[in-house]
Amino acid sequence: MFETTHASILPARISAQVSGLHLASIRLEAAYPALPTPLQTSSGSLEVAPLLIVQVLTACGVIGESYLFSPNRTLLPALSEATKAVFEVVRGDPCLPENITDKVLRHFKLFGGTGIVTMAMAAVDMAVWDVVGKAIGKPLYRVLGGTSPELRTYESSGLGIGDQRTIRQQAESFLKNGNTTMKLRLGYETLAADMGALDMLADAFGSSVQLMVDYNQGLTPSEAIKRCTEIDGLGLLWIEEPIHADLLEETATLQAKLKTPIQIGENLWSPTEVDRALRLSASRYLMPDVGKIGGVTQWLRAARLADNYGVKVSSHLYPEISSHLLAAIPNAHFLEYADWTANQFSGHAKPSGNSLRVSDQPGFGLYA
Ligand SMILES: [Mg+2]
């Protein structure tokens, strides 16, 4: 969990500009916006997005804003308490996000590097990066040296596990909006049912739809070999999390047998875990989650490691925040677009067709 060898991310001239800002207090609020499209995956059903809304206040009045998506609704209060505890470690410190993250990592080293503490660290880290953007009056991707605000996106708001009529209707509505790339959830009871969903989409839309599939860790390693071999010739963009995220060696064995790239990353909790996945060649693509990997600082460190291996990086959720990160790295692949926060943030990042233009508001632009 403790990282010491990363090259600095924030340019020195910007560090000098923001080092006089100090963290004064934090405000946290729970929100439960309804998903515009409820989603069923192999790991459960989602109807609301449990969010922790975060505001970090600086002594001079600049307010940094971020949020966390809590994969489990009942743990949102615990996430809030942990975020308060993380903030206490850095209260009064200058708004230098890498220093803040490394201090929190050192402080909680004995607690371990996954779960609620890491997400709480992400909440604070993201809000501090938002302070940096607002303090110098630039969108975060520009602070980070990004020059091109156009990103490739795919639709991830629907195509859950369910009846074929609903899947087909959702795919039709995505297509109507110009989104031709979309993610289908698999991991039905049987391989035949997985194939049924794929065949239906192929029959209905042919090559006008490009698909990636996500098993949400739903298969055993032996079942994954059987099912992924069966779908390997279908021209899928990737096969996501076929087996449990901890089983990196087994994922590498599976990847070596397949032509189709495997995609993992949303359940890797640090750049160190990302590095391990890269060393093992566990997957051909990576998609870290900015909330689970520990925030903007740790996400960018992971993306740099991936670039060293020539691996392209996509995002997982958080479109308003992830869009700035992808626009700032040379190895950007796809932005995952899910509409889960559309009812929460006035600055919600929404694609047009298969592309998204990153917000030009200072910081993340969560509230336009
Ligand atoms: Mg996934």
TrEMBL record:
Residue intervals of the Mandelate racemase/muconate lactonizing enzyme C-terminal domain: 164-261
Pfam families: MR_MLE_C, MR_MLE_N
Signal peptide location: none
Gene3D superfamilies named among the record's database cross-references: Enolase-like C-terminal domain (3.20.20.120), Enolase-like, N-terminal domain (3.30.390.10)
Database matches in SMART domains: MR_MLE
Keywords: Magnesium, Metal-binding
Protein name: Enolase C-terminal domain-like protein
Cofactor(s) the record lists: Mg(2+)
